[in-house]
Write a sequence for this structure.
C-alpha cells in the first residue's frame, strides 16, 4: 500500500469516529464503501487496525480506545482537530481532481503561481531537527532575487490568507521574520544546529495576528465592526479571526467583536470589503480607515 493510501485510511478512520463511536464491523463496512468510491483498497484486519490506531495517536495526536461495555471504538482525545480536518479536505480535493480527468471544462481553478509547498517536507524536517537552512529569496514587489543567500533558523510554518510562510530567525540581523514559501528557491539544509529561543511559542506569538505581520510586543485591541446584513452572512460563515464574537445579528446589521492587532494586512482586508463594513471601535482604526478611503478618492480626482 502506498503512503498516500495509508494516510487516506487514517483520515477515513478519524472522520468516521469523529462522527460516531463505531464497532470494528462498522468501520470495516465504511472502509469497504470508500474503497469502491475511490477505486482504492482501504480494507483492514482487526490486528492491523489495532496497530494503526497506535500510529494515529503517535502521528496525529488522536487517542482511540475500545469501549468494552458498548463494543465500540471511540476518540477520547483529539488534540489536532483543525489540522486533521484540513488533511481530510486535501484528500477530498485530490480525489475530486483525479475523477475530473475527463471533465476539465467543468472544474475551474484559479490561475495562480504554485504556493511553494514542494519545500514543505524539507522545511518540516529542518524545524524538527533544528537544522539551519540557506535559500534564495525574492520579495513580492520585485521579480529579482534579493539577498540570494539567506541563512535562517526555521521555527514554524504558518498559513495566512491561503498562502504558506516560513517563520524563521534571520541570522543576518537576528530578527524573527516570515518568508513566503512561493518565493523560496535553492533550499539547502545545513549541518549547523540551533536552539529554539527560550519561551518561544509560534502559536502564541501569532495568536492576535490577522496575517503574517506580528506585533506580539503590543497589547491586542478590541475591534468592533458593523457589516451589512448581506455581508454578515459571509462573515458569519467565514470569520475574519478566531477571536470573532457575534454581538448583533438582525435584518439591519451583523456586528462582531474581535481581539487582535489592527496591522496593515487587516486594514487592507477591511478596505477590500468596501461599503459593506464600518469600523465602530477603536477610534484610531476608524480614523485610519477614513484616511485610506480619502486617499483612494483623491486618486480619482
Amino acid at each position: 500500500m502506498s503512503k498516500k493510501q495509508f494516510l487516506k485510511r487514517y483520515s477515513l478512520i478519524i472522520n468516521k469516529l469523529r462522527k460516531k463511536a463505531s464497532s470494528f464491523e462498522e468501520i470495516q463496512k465504511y472502509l469497504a464503501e470508500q474503497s469502491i468510491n475511490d477505486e482504492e483498497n482501504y480494507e483492514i484486519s482487526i490486528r492491523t487496525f489495532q496497530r494503526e490506531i497506535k500510529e494515529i495517536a503517535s502521528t496525529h495526536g488522536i487517542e482511540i480506545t475500545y469501549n468494552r461495555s458498548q463494543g465500540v471504538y471511540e476518540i477520547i482525545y483529539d488534540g489536532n482537530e483543525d489540522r486533521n480536518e484540513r488533511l481530510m479536505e486535501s484528500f477530498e480535493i485530490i480525489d475530486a481532481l483525479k475523477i475530473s480527468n475527463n471533465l476539465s471544462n467543468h472544474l475551474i481553478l484559479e490561475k495562480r503561481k504554485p504556493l511553494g509547498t514542494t519545500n514543505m517536507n524539507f522545511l518540516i524536517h529542518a524545524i524538527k531537527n533544528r537544522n539551519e537552512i540557506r535559500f534564495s529569496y525574492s520579495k513580492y514587489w520585485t521579480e529579482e532575487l534579493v539577498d540570494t543567500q539567506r541563512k535562517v533558523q526555521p521555527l514554524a510554518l504558518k498559513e495566512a490568507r491561503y498562502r504558506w510562510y516560513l517563520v524563521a530567525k534571520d541570522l543576518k540581523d537576528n530578527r524573527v521574520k516570515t518568508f513566503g514559501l512561493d518565493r523560496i528557491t535553492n533550499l539547502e539544509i545545513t549541518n549547523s544546529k540551533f536552539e529554539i529561543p527560550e519561551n518561544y511559542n509560534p502559536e502564541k506569538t501569532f495568536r492576535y495576528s490577522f496575517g503574517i505581520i506580528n506585533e506580539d510586543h503590543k497589547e491586542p485591541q478590541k475591534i468592533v465592526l458593523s457589516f451589512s446584513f448581506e455581508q454578515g452572512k459571509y462573515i458569519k460563515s467565514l470569520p475574519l479571526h478566531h477571536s470573532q464574537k457575534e454581538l448583533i445579528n438582525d435584518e439591519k446589521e451583523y456586528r462582531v467583536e474581535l481581539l487582535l492587532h489592527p496591522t496593515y494586512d487587516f486594514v487592507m482586508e477591511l478596505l477590500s470589503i468596501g461599503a459593506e463594513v464600518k469600523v465602530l471601535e477603536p477610534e484610531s482604526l476608524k480614523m485610519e480607515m477614513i484616511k485610506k478611503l480619502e486617499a483612494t478618492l483623491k486618486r480619482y480626482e
